[in-house]
């Protein structure tokens, strides 16, 4: 079975102490879990900027990657309040969440700024966790077409620069973010499958497609044939829920043997 990428962005839900506590609990679960020990799952956590130095060594104990919730497209300069890719690399950051629908809606991010950030991340060996998704609920084929357009716009500058490396595409339909339940299983599999097929023949990218948008325990077994993992939010605030999803991943692997 292919390795699954499973992790969570903590957004701004927790303060420093709670992020440390959450990561310690999840890292303990990961360190002992056969899904991680056997290389079936690559877990990750994306804390707030100030908590990255505290979270990183704890996460390492559970073989968890650490990400950042954003980055700036320039390497240095007069950009008050921003954080650069080179500095994130110094802190051991391996992933960077880019283009989330909340940042587009609240902070005016556009396809152009997202493309600049993706290029900056890849330039410094940080894998973008590129968030894409259709705004309104509709047919899977229309959703897939919209997502592929958004994906290509976001990769335009990285492609121009000849960038290579890891890319994580987080499919998050905007209408499912914060909803009581995720998108329908068939919808997720169809759109995830279309994105994977679109990226499959690109030799420059080591690409994975994960699903986010009210994702939590119980979903992975229903969508695993269409995605490469899950991007968790509030339904993983209880570390035990993270553990249950690892259980599901291990059960899938056992069933495929």
TrEMBL record:
<dbReference type="Pfam" id="PF00121">
    <property type="entry name" value="TIM"/>
</dbReference>
<comment type="pathway">
    <text>Carbohydrate degradation; glycolysis; D-glyceraldehyde 3-phosphate from glycerone phosphate: step 1/1.</text>
</comment>
<keyword id="KW-0413">Isomerase</keyword>
<dbReference type="InterPro" id="IPR000652">
    <property type="entry name" value="Triosephosphate_isomerase"/>
</dbReference>
<comment type="subunit">
    <text>Homodimer.</text>
</comment>
<keyword id="KW-0963">Cytoplasm</keyword>
<dbReference type="InterPro" id="IPR035990">
    <property type="entry name" value="TIM_sf"/>
</dbReference>
<protein>
    <recommendedName>
        <fullName>Triosephosphate isomerase</fullName>
        <ecNumber>5.3.1.1</ecNumber>
    </recommendedName>
</protein>
<comment type="similarity">
    <text>Belongs to the triosephosphate isomerase family.</text>
</comment>
<keyword id="KW-0324">Glycolysis</keyword>
<comment type="pathway">
    <text>Carbohydrate biosynthesis; gluconeogenesis.</text>
</comment>
<dbReference type="GO" id="GO:0016853">
    <property type="term" value="F:isomerase activity"/>
</dbReference>
<dbReference type="InterPro" id="IPR013785">
    <property type="entry name" value="Aldolase_TIM"/>
</dbReference>
<keyword id="KW-0312">Gluconeogenesis</keyword>
């Amino acid at each position: 079975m292919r390795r699954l990428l499973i992790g969570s962005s903590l957004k701004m839900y927790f303060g420093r102490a709670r992020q440390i506590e959450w990561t310690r609990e999840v890292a303990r679960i990961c360190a002992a879990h056969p899904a991680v020990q056997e290389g079936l799952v690559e877990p990750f956590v994306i804390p707030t900027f100030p908590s990255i130095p505290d979270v990183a060594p704890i996460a390492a104990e559970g073989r968890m990657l650490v990400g950042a919730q954003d980055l700036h497209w320039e390497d240095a300069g007069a950009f008050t309040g921003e954080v650069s890719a080179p500095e994130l690399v110094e802190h051991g950051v391996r992933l960077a969440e880019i283009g989330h629908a909340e940042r587009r809606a609240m902070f005016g991010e556009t396809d152009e700024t997202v493309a600049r950030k993706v290029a900056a991340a890849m330039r410094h060996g940080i894998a973008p966790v590129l968030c894409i998704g259709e705004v309104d609920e509709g047919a899977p084929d229309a959703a897939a077409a919209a997502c592929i357009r958004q994906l290509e716009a976001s990769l335009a500058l990285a492609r121009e620069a000849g960038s290579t490396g890891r890319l994580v595409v987080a499919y998050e339909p905007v209408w499912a973010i914060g909803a009581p339940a995720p998108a329908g299983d068939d919808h997720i599999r169809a759109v995830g499958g279309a994105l994977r097929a679109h990226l499959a023949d690109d030799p420059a990218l080591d690409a994975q497609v994960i699903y986010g948008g009210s994702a939590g325990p119980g979903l992975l077994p229903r969508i695993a044939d269409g995605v490469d993992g899950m991007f968790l939010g509030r339904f993983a605030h209880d570390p035990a829920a993270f553990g249950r999803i690892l259980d599901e991943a291990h059960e899938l692997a056992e069933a495929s043997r």
